[in-house]
From TrEMBL:
<protein>
    <recommendedName>
        <fullName>N-acetyltransferase domain-containing protein</fullName>
    </recommendedName>
</protein>
<dbReference type="GO" id="GO:0009100">
    <property type="term" value="P:glycoprotein metabolic process"/>
</dbReference>
<dbReference type="InterPro" id="IPR016181">
    <property type="entry name" value="Acyl_CoA_acyltransferase"/>
</dbReference>
<dbReference type="GO" id="GO:0016231">
    <property type="term" value="F:beta-N-acetylglucosaminidase activity"/>
</dbReference>
<dbReference type="InterPro" id="IPR051822">
    <property type="entry name" value="Glycosyl_Hydrolase_84"/>
</dbReference>
Amino acid sequence: MSGEQEPWVFRGGLTADLQRLIPVDSGNDLFAYKVPDAPTCKVFTIRPYLGSDEAQVYDVCNRTCKDGLEDHMPLLPELKNVYADRLVGPYVTLHPEFSFVVEDDAVIVGYACAAPDHRKFRIKQEIAWIPEMCEKYPVHLAQSTTSSVQECISHFHNFKNEVFVNSPTHPASMICSLLPSVLDHSVSKRLVTCLLASLRANGFFGVHAAINSTDSYTHAFYGKLGFSENTQDGVKGKIVMGRTF
């Protein structure tokens, strides 16, 4: 680390020694945890993503796809994973090595995934992900369904023409989500710390997250994780939030 960190950032003893080993140079804010409002005996475990976690990660994504909440509109069986296939599927399929999950005593309750180079990630999607999605979600399925599902299907079939974030300062992209039942705010900070450390260890020092301009909860969520709006690399209808580490 650079040595510019204030000494009060780190606790004493073993905790401080372990924090100094994490290669996140400017992520000191992620080590500041608020005491939970209510005592809890829940234990959360953060670990790398495994292929067997896909169904549970998809479930978390589907339950948080509408600005942190579930879309309660009933969907056809063939459309039940359309949100997850758009949002988190490409990350866990193409870059599982940069994917982490958090689980409680029973199931996975959150995830954080990243792609180290978003421009190359888009190329990989176009070659190895989008054709499969276009076959899985033909255009006719967009008829008589919600506007959100229509937008997802349109995304798959018009992927080539979409304008995407291409930021020299925040080249990596990420997505993070936790179930509303996770009330301990330190869980998301610890989860993102693991993700940023893995990116930095591979030579990447900036990451961005593109969210819908109407998603106030998600905007506040990333704000609490030290992300700030990046107006220079804006995309129509999206808010780009980035941070360096």
